[in-house]
Design brief:
Strand order of the largest sheet: 1-2-3-9-10-11
Order of helices and strands: EEEEEHEEEEEE
Structural class: mainly beta
Number of domains: 1
Number of helices: 1
Shape: globular
Distance between the termini: 44 Å
Radius of gyration: 16 Å
Strand content: 35-45%
Helix content: under 10%
Length: 155
């Protein structure tokens, strides 16, 4: 059992994309929210069917691929399984019988995703490790950019 198993049985309620910050927001019926600043992909019957990088591209189709619509189409499927891969920070949500929504950590230093729930707290993945906070107010402020990536002795 992992710390995010409370998502089982929940459904995606809505999805949005904030182009200015290149962030995807997936809201759930429980009030939880998943903020994604890395790659996500949808797997259908074991095959890749869409990714966040496809958003806005035509691929020879009559109109651009809409990642928001792809995520919204998953609303009817309950979350059956939640897999968190510590070490890589990847998050896999099995939706219904045939879909998997995968959030792939694309940075070892930045936070690729964070999950918040109005009463259960906040979970942040960083460097492949899960950090848990009872509330968003407990979360420490981010490090100044000048300190990120520098260790003692570096100039």
């Amino acid at each position: 059992m992992n710390e995010l198993d409370w998502l089982k049985g929940d459904h995606i309620a809505s999805a949005s994309y904030e182009a200015d910050s290149d962030t995807w927001i997936v809201a759930f019926n429980s009030g939880a929210s998943l903020s994604i600043s890395s790659l996500w992909r949808l797997i259908e019957d074991g095959d890749i069917s869409a990714t966040s990088l496809d958003h806005g591209h035509r691929f020879g189709l009559p109109k651009e691929f809409d990642g928001v619509a792809a995520l919204q189409s998953m609303k009817k499927y309950p979350i059956r399984c939640v897999e968190l891969r510590l070490g890589t920070g990847d998050l896999f949500l099995t939706l219904g019988a045939e879909f998997e929504f995968q959030v792939i950590a694309s940075s070892a230093g930045y936070e690729p995703w964070q999950m918040t729930h109005p009463t259960l707290g906040m979970w942040v993945i960083s460097g492949g490790e899960l950090h848990t906070f009872e509330s968003a107010q407990q979360r420490p402020p981010p490090l100044p950019l000048a300190l990120v990536g520098h260790s003692e002795g570096e100039g």
